[in-house]
Design goal:
The chain is mainly beta. The protein is 4% helix and 41% strand. The protein has 1 helix and 25 strands.
Length: 348
Amino acid sequence: MPHTPHAILSRQPIDGLRWPVLDPFLFCAHHDDAYPAGDGQMGLQAVALDERELGSDFSGKDGFSMYHGEHVPGFPGHPHRGFETVTLVRKGLIDHADSLGAAARFGEGDVQWLTAGQGIQHSEMFPLLHRDQANPLELFQIWLNLPAARKMVAPHFTMLWSERIPRLVHTSDGGARTTVTVVAGALPGAGAPLPPPPESWAGQADADVAIWTLRLEPGARWSLPAAQGAQTRRMLYWFVGQQLQVAGDTLREHAALEMAAGQDWVLENTGSDVAELLMLQGRPIAEPVVQYGPFVMNTQQEIMQTMMDYRRTQFGGWPWDSQDPVHGPEIRRFARHPGQQVEERPTA
């Protein structure tokens, strides 16, 4: 009889902020913060902060962290070089500012894709805009590596607005739906994929990079199609739901699953509530990775040069009045690309 490959090559539990990844990805963080009502200045209302290590609070106390923010939660200005950040916002709004002069407030399913390349500074703040209700925030931040030949490309700011991102909706025989949101990569039936930034590894024809989110209603059944490339590696993260079948294997605990990417595998939500998954795949870059905090290069010497370059140039400087700029109290979605007018988007 012919050998049938195992669908799940390995599995790891996922619990907390940081999830395991495979080359060409460097990092995947799931931020899920139950922020309370705001104080009218986009900070926290009626919450004691004196028990937190402000400026470095990853405690998750009371269901949220301040991260590096001291009044408004978030990540004040910091540098990057040598890779890309992809930020998928599921709930809430994020205020972005960077050394290119770009600014944005985005959320409600939007994705920001930032090529750090030779160097950029940016801030990511989480303004608490509602004073009379909670301000939940949920997002994925994914770091996608750049190959050595492209680590020093010009930085680039990209917005993928939720209403423009391709989606596939598949209805099972019983009427339950599977919705696949295609941030990167091609999926038959989802429409034309959005182009990634010009120098991204995701833009290489044979890189087979895909970033998808999947939502399966109870009883939904959908066949995850095989990857296009023979070298593609695929990680499937199941993080919401009660019970899931993957190629006939019943799972009851959320996990990161390295999947055999060369074959179709059936996913079925056998639980009583919605199941949600994230998929990251791509052909490995297969180069040395040397990381020092927010810098990712190929050698220690390049890291040392990066640190000297940042001290000397500040990667273009910081054109904002503060290290943690926020963009006013209005509920809005917008982006100002470098040297361009403001683009406004409708809010839900």
